[in-house]
Amino acid sequence: MRISKSKIESLLAEYGWTKTVYSEKCGISRQNISTIVLRGTCEPRTAGKLAAGLGVSVSEILDDSQSGA
Fold first, then answer.
1. All domains of the chain, ordered by start, with CATH?
2. How many CB atoms lie within 10 A of CB 54?
3. The overall pTM is greater than 0.85
């Protein structure tokens, strides 16, 4: 799945969270979060964990620029 770096980083800024705090919330290592966000892709299960950690639906962190692809 293609995820949006800007959407995730915007939510982290809004919540005042570091990637370390975020990693504790979603159960994914900070290093893996950094890699996933930089790469912009992950497995659907991982996208679910990322979204749950932020308290949002998966659709809220997806990269809209790839719609229809």
1. 5-55 (1.10.260)
2. 20
3. yes
